[in-house]
Amino acid sequence: MARGLVIEALEELARQEQYQLSETSLDLLINRGYGGHLAQVASGAFLNLLDPKRLVKIFCERPQLVAQHPDLLLGNLSDLDLSALLQLVEVLDPSKPVIRGFVQRKLHSRRRTSSLTSLTGSGEFGDGATSVRKDLKSVDAVRMVHCFLMVVLHLNNSRALDGEPVNTDFLFENIEDILKNIMECSQSSRQKISCRSNPVGCGQTHAAVALKNGDLYTWGKSNHGRLGHGEQKGSPASCGPCKVGNFHTLQIKVTSVACGMQHTIALTNQGLYGWGSSKYGQVGLGTKHLYMRPMPIEEMSKVMCIAIDCGQYHTVALTDDAQVYSWGWGVHGQLGHGDTEERLVPKLITSFSNQSIIKIAAGYCHTLALTLQGELYAFGCGFFGQLGLGTSIKHTLPVKVSAIPEKIITMATKFFHCVAVDNHNRVYQWGSHPHGLRHFVHSQRRARQSGQSNFEQADGHLRPRLVDTTYVNGRIKQVVCGSFHSCIVTKDGDVYTWGRNLDGQLGNGTRQDVRIPQMVTTINDRNIIHLTSGGEYNVAMDIDRQIWVWGRNEFCQVCSI
Question: What is the value of pTM for the model shown?
Answer without folding.
Answer: 0.71
